[in-house]
Amino acid sequence: MWKLRIMEDITIPWHSVFGFGAHIKASSTTLSIRQKSDFREIPLEKVGHLLLVGGHNLHTSAVSHLLKQNSSISFFDADASPLGILHPYGESSCGEMENLQRKTPVYHAASEILRSSVKSKMNLIDEVMKEAGRVLFYEGEYELFLKSLEDVEYLVKIDELRRLQRLISDMYYEVVSRGLNPIHGFKRRTKRPHNDPVNAMLSIGYAMLFGNVSVSVAGSYMNPDYGVLSEGGGSLINDLMGPLKAGMVDSAVFRVSREYLSPEYYETGTKRCHLREDLTSVLSDCLHKSIDQKRIDMVVSSYADHLIKKTPLRIYY
């Protein structure tokens, strides 16, 4: 069974193809992927799930050989929004993983996600302070961050962890905003529609990160709507991307804000802020460099290990 092969070999044998123009074929033993100058040959038995993001040339030989060995194929558009999935007849891996999600106690994962989120935010605040050349904390704020890390050990209810998560998140954005040019109007994280360019750029970055995390979650066969801290649609994706936001998105957005952003690159109205295309192009380039799919895969793989092998969750933020 595929599930047993996971536990004996590697936890999530998925392979992703991003971008456009890849030619994907397969023999009875090997999956071949040619994309521009890059050429990969992967033993077919090592591909439990093939994830295609963007537009590629998929030969029916790859489809038939993968389905014959009980592997799946998922399709995403260029923005990594899920489109659909091919499963072999009788495939039950999704049901097995969802059952593990529902049976596994969530406290350890929730506390580790929160702890890693706080640490990653503190790391980025340090970077922004170095760039700004001054301390950004008001009296007592730094101590509150440190105390929150200690408090995680003693909070026993998920609702308590959620409240602490909201408190730290709100304070984090306010602290970081002091290191940016106030002319852009960013003071804290706001809900859509955004009236300032920094919040608008953050939302673009979080959407890109959400898409990339969703690719890995799909590859793991987990239910993306069954989170541990968050609730609702995509809650697991929101949980796993939480500790990754600061390093993969916020760092890029704040760098663009400091080094490139000026009022000529956006328009603010009564309802929303509109970003010019050249600004979003610069931001997109930065995000493509800072969003690390391999690290995302490691985080999702660690969570799958936590469910299957009962090992501690490790967040590589």
How is this fold's topology laid out?
Blueprint lengths: L1 H7 L5 E4 L2 E7 L3 E6 L2 E6 L5 E5 L1 E4 L1 H9 L3 E5 L5 E5 L6 H11 L3 H26 L8 H12 L5 H20 L19 H23 L15 H7 L3 H15 L6 E3 L4 E3 L1 H14 L2 H16 L9
Parallel strand pairs: 1-5, 2-6, 5-7
Antiparallel strand pairs: 2-3, 3-4, 7-8, 9-10
Description:
By secondary structure, this protein is of the alpha/beta class. The protein has two domains: 2-91, Ribosomal Protein L15, Chain: K, domain 2, CATH 3.100.10; 101-308, Up-down Bundle (Four Helix Bundle (Hemerythrin (Met), subunit A)), CATH 1.20.120. It has helices spanning 2-8, 60-68, 93-103, 107-132, 141-152, 158-177, 197-219, 235-241, 245-259, 277-290, 293-308, and strands spanning 14-17, 20-26, 30-35, 38-43, 49-53, 55-58, 72-76, 82-86, 266-268, 273-275. It has a four-stranded mixed sheet, with helices on both faces. Strands 4-3-2-6 form a four-stranded mixed sheet. Strands 9-10 form a two-stranded antiparallel ribbon. Strand 7 (72-76) and strand 8 (82-86) form a beta hairpin. The longest helix has 26 residues, at 107-132.
Shape: globular
Overall SS class = alpha/beta
Number of DSSP strands? 10
**CATH architecture identity of the largest domain:** Up-down Bundle
Oligomer: single chain
Please describe the biggest sheet, giving its number of strands, its sense, and whether it closes into a barrel: 4 strands, mixed
What is the N-to-C order of secondary-structure elements (H for helix, E for strand)?
Answer: HEEEEEEHEEHHHHHHHEEHH
CATH fold label of the largest domain: Four Helix Bundle (Hemerythrin (Met), subunit A)
Name of the CATH superfamily of the largest domain = CRISPR-associated endonuclease Cas1, C-terminal domain
Count up the domains: 2
Radius of gyration: 21 Å
Low-confidence stretches: 1-12
Largest sheet strand order: 1-5-7-8
Percent range for helical residues?
Answer: 40-55%
Helix count?
11
Q: Mean of the pLDDT scores?
A: 90
- CATH class label of the largest domain: Mainly Alpha
The rounded distance between the terminal residues' Cα atoms is: 33 Å
Hey, roughly how much beta strand do the residues contain? 15-25%
